[in-house]
Specification:
The protein is an alpha+beta fold. It has 5 helices and 7 strands. Strands 1, 2, 3, 4, 5, 6 and 7 form a 7-stranded antiparallel β-sheet that branches.
Length: 227
């Protein structure tokens, strides 16, 4: 007769590996985020979760939700926001959010427990610098074997995301490369066309009104003839 703990781990291991195979074959960050939250909800009973992008603007530390997991009326919903379409209103300051500040500062997993909920937060690091957070929440406590599995799962995800990040950037400047620009521009323009198709025709008077917050702008600059 097998040990109950071993049986529990085995029952999750195969589907976990199957999901990792799917994620490893993906290069699109939106689909990767969905795989992550969907997998953790199915295998670990995560009820609420979010993937935040972290960035520093001046002296202020900001987070912006990139994907979110919620349960409504017994149904699981996963929503995502294209990081290239985030606006200033989607950001939130880190001040007053110790459960998110701590993993960013320490670069390690953060666990907070109460009688009614369990909160688990993982930072995602690139060259030891945090750039994102994965926040997970459920009602029941996380067992030691679950935490060990999640540590390994998030570690593999981080390695894969860093490979995706490497493929998206120019090694000399560290900026997004031309291939990444083309792919994301196509996606942004497609979303604009969808909105245009759903909206009413624009009158000549509306064309001269100030731009609305959700509008997309493209600026092209030649920096010292650097191509």
């Amino acid at each position: 007769m097998s040990d109950p703990a071993t049986g529990t781990i085995s029952s999750r291991l195969l589907p976990l590996l199957q999901q990792l195979r799917q994620v490893a074959g993906e290069k699109d960050r939106d689909r990767i985020n969905r795989y992550i939250l969907d997998t953790l909800a199915k295998l670990y009973g995560i009820e609420d979760g979010a993937i935040y992008l972290y960035f520093l603007h001046g002296n202020q530390h900001w987070l912006a939700i990139n994907a979110a997991l919620t349960h409504r009326d017994g149904e699981r919903e996963i929503s995502s926001i294209d990081p290239y379409q985030l606006n200033v209103h989607a950001r939130q300051e880190l001040e007053g959010l110790p459960h998110l500040q701590t993993p960013l500062q320490e670069g390690t997993r953060y666990l907070e427990e109460s009688p009614h909920w369990q909160l688990l937060v993982y930072p995602l690091l690139h060259k030891d610098t945090p750039y994102a957070l994965i926040e997970l929440q459920r009602a029941t406590p996380f067992a030691a074997d679950e935490l060990e599995e999640l540590d390994q799962f998030i570690g593999i995800l981080q390695d894969h995301l860093n490979l995706v990040r490497y493929a998206e950037t120019d090694t000399l400047t560290g900026m997004l490369n031309r291939k990444t620009f083309d792919e994301n521009l196509d996606r942004v323009l497609a979303s604009v066309h969808e909105c245009d198709a759903e909206s009413a025709p624009v009158s000549s008077e509306q064309r001269h009104l100030p731009p609305e917050p959700g509008m997309i702008w493209l600026a092209v600059m030649d920096i010292d003839h650097f191509k």
